[in-house]
Amino acid sequence: MRRLRVRVRGQVQGVGFRPFLYGLAHRLALTGWVLNDGDGVLAEVQGDALERFLTALAEEAPPLARIDAIETDAVPVQPGEAGFAILASQRGAVTTGIAPDAAVCPACLAELFNPKDRRYRYPFLNCTHCGPRFTITRALPYDRPQTAMAGFPLCPDCAAEYADPADRRFHAQPTACPACGPRLSHPIEEVLDALRGGRIVAIKGLGGFHLACDAFDAAAVERLRARKQRNGKPFALMVANTASADRFGAVGAAERALLEGVARPVVLLRRRDDAPTLPDAIAPGLAWLGMMLPYTPIHHLLFHEAAGRPDGTAWLERPQDLTLVMTSANPGGEPLAIGNAEARRRLDGIADLIVDHDRDILIRADDSVMRVVAGAPAFLRRGRGHAPASIRLPRSGPPVLAVGAHQKATVCLTRGNEAFLSQHIGDLDNAATLEFLEESVAHLRRILAVEPVAVAHDLHPDFQSTRFAESLGLPTLPMQHHHAHIAAVLAEQGEAGPPLGPTLGLALDGFGLGADGGSWGGEMLLVDGTGFTRLGHLAPLAQPGGDVAARQPWRMAAAALARMGRGAEIAERFAGCGPADGVRRMIEAGINAPPTSSCGRWFDAACGLLGVRAFSPGGAGFEGEAPMALESLVRHPTVLEGGWRIDGGVLDLTPLLESLLQINAREGAERFHGTLAAALVAWALPELAARGLDRVVLSGGCLMNAVLAEGLSAGFAARGVTALLPRRAPANDGGLSLGQAWIAVQSLLQEGPPPCASPFPPA
Ligand SMILES: [Zn+2]
Ligand SMILES: [Zn+2]
Fold first, then answer.
1. Residue 520, C-beta contacts closer than 8 angstroms, at least 6 positions apart
2. Dihedrals phi, psi of 65, to nearest 5 degrees
3. More confident position, 95 or 120
4. Pair (451, 542) in one structural domain
């Protein structure tokens, strides 16, 4: 007989780990105890079957657990010990993680639709394998008094389950039932009637409110678009199950795994030609639909009601007609509404009915949005279901905070070799979003009990995030934008091992301030730890009018025409788009038309020349709108030989753009994507070969474009080069704080060049 002390690190609290160990110890006739503490789970086990215990510990862990490390020490045998106990949580130094929120598990669904179960149709059922976590937790250790369930004392039945080690709800902190738990403000049948009656319903979810309506009701969808947002951002849809989603868009194995996974993101599916006809206003002109499956009991109950309240779970597999628009309730570009009073105030005039409940949301989290890119999942937005899971860095270092840039802001706090990337925060265009950023930093500091020793921020001095970083009283580390994009991908390679050496990266992006003070965004960088060298960039295009050109592709098309020596055509071609002749003069005189090497602006130029969303009245479009529509036109990318020139590290796509003037939008979209990918590969290959490198990092907002990412990935692979794409964080600025944090960790670990050193001569 031996006794072992076992330390389990990772996502092991709030996921049923202690009851799992309890059951395991009983099965193997072991004695001892288990508890939660600041480092995860600590146990002592005594008996003969210790090897089997350790094997089962790793292999049979509960569905929401993620084990990062198991450490064992032999300790003295305790003579006469009987039984296995679950001891009270130890407070003290908190260094462990909180699990993300998870979709309702199959066992809970079986109860939800079983008329004999005491939780039949109860909208807040959950267990140790499912339900809310991150969004209802104030602080660690993760115990009921630290959650939004603190005000709901358990009834005798729930208390008995909670205390029974053989029960699925043993120590399930958010557990509840109709007798003791939260209540929904409106009966489900009333909510469904409202949706079917064409009304817009705000529904309180896990990380905030959604605005919902019947997706087949064109008038309701138009009304929602008019009330909530006037630009053309697509709305996500919720359907009952994969069989229902598959009627709209092609669901392959990778998409199915994403749709049905416990994180339940919105998943982009390529629209089927024979899909049921949806109103145009859902995803105007886009070949991709964002779809998700129900993840709270409230969602499931809506579909159950629509299906006629069938008993049992067989109906869950059959296609269902009910299709709901489910879009974040974030009017005015401000953060998602989470409070009941806040929802009534902010959604007044938008929602016809507000469905809330008395379980508070303590921290907001938007739905994650993912798509399959080059055969594997990629984030477009990382939020609910993923935050605050950590990303393992290649190396441990001092704790640092990073605050991102301006758009799609996230923050990142490191602890040891773990990087905690916050949920999506938003564009820092308003005070409310900035406040959310500050709250997110405070919340991460609290739940991780980490005090950063430095703060990394974007090189741009005028970003709100930069000013916030400077207000913290910590040493500040400015990071060049595209260096941080490449570093974000290098950071997540920590899962695979130690840091990579010098790495060539292509940052294909919208806008970032360059080390020379210019506007960058199509960069070839050689990144080595804290330093980088700008090996090349896309040929600069004038950006007439500055930022507004990012939402008015015709302006970039005008700049491209000027570059072709065809400036005289601008006024005629874009006569209907606004001040076309004024824009020509700005470009020719170089006034308010700063040059940019941005890949995103080259995309815009192509869209403008092809007449794809070239002009939105009043500048009402959103950045990336036209390129998304352009990507939607592509079936088979084509390559125009001679479509580019490479000169002194500068890649010039002017011949490609000039050729677009002769062809239609679809052909143009296919030629632009195919030729751009081929040109980028041809540009990078000699630089890779000269350094003996067989890996290239691809990052930046343009890599959210699956056609481009796949073209690059395949193009490099054909030449024996592995392309590393962002997988754990978004390719766009949502992943930037991770890269900033990783550069900061390295710079604090070593004496070396300052993070932004660049030998490239100023422009
Ligand atoms: Zn469950
Ligand atoms: Zn109860």
1. 481, 482, 507, 509, 511, 512, 513, 514, 537, 596, 597, 598
2. -80, 145
3. 120
4. no
Instruction: Say which amino acid occupies 383.
Output: G
> Tokens 């009701």 sit at which residue?
217
What integer pLDDT is reported at residue 412 of this predicted model?
98
What is the whole-number distance in angstroms between the Cα of residue 298 and the centre of ligand 2?
Answer: 18
The closest of 524, 535, 529, 480 to 500, measured between CA atoms, is 529
| 15 Cα to the center of ligand 2, angstroms | 20
- Active-site residue identified among 2, 5, 9, 18: 18
List, in sequence order, every beta strand (DSSP E) within 76-165. Answer: 84-86
| Ion ligand 1 residue ranges (Cβ < 5 Å) | 105, 108, 127, 129-130
- Answer whether residue 182 is part of any domain: no
- Cα(715) to ligand 2 centroid in Å equals 58
3-state secondary structure of 458: strand
Of the listed ligands, the closest to the CA of 160 is: 2
Residues 553, 617, single domain; the answer is yes
Which helix (H) or strand (E) element contains residue 369?
strand 369-373
Q: What CATH number is associated with residue 232?
A: 3.90.870.40
> Cα(262) to centroid of ligand 1, in Å?
11
Catalytic residue from among 36, 241, 330, 732: 36
Q: Give bridge partners of residue 457 from the DSSP assignment.
A: 478
Centroid of ligand 2 to alpha carbon of 178 (angstroms): 6
In a domain, 173, yes or no: no
pLDDT value of position 761: 38
* Cα three-residue angle 297-301-303, rounded to 5 degrees: 125
- What is the 129 CA–ligand 1 centroid distance (Å)? 5
Active site (annotated) includes residue 36? yes
**Contact between 373 and 702 (Cβ < 8 Å):** no
State pLDDT tens for residues 78-94.
999 999 998 877 765 45
Residue 176 CA to ligand 2 center (angstroms) comes to 5
Q: Cα dist. 466→187, 334, 404, 409, 709 in Å? A: 47, 20, 9, 12, 30
In angstroms, rounded to a whole number, what is the distance separating the alpha carbons of residues 20 and 166?
9
Which backbone phi and psi does 300 adopt, to 5 degrees?
Answer: -60, -40
Per-residue pLDDT reduced to its tens digit, 542-586: 999 988 888 899 999 999 999 999 999 999 999 888 889 999 999
User: Is residue 489 within 8 Å of 501, Cβ to Cβ?
Assistant: no
Q: Is 66 a catalytic residue?
A: no
Crossing angle of helices 625-632/665-690, nearest 10°? 100
The verdict on 585 and 684 lying in the same domain is: yes
Find the angle CA(451)-CA(452)-CA(456) to the nearest 5 degrees.
Answer: 155
Domain extent, residue 463, equals 388-479+732-763
- pLDDT interval class at 532 (50, 70, 90): very high
> Which one of the ligands is nearest to 153 CA?
2
Cis check for the bond before 617: say yes or no (omega within 30 of 0).
no
Residues 6+ apart with CB under 8 A from 181: 122, 124, 149, 152, 158, 175, 359
CB atoms near residue 497 (< 10 Å): 8
DSSP 8-state code for residue 315:
G
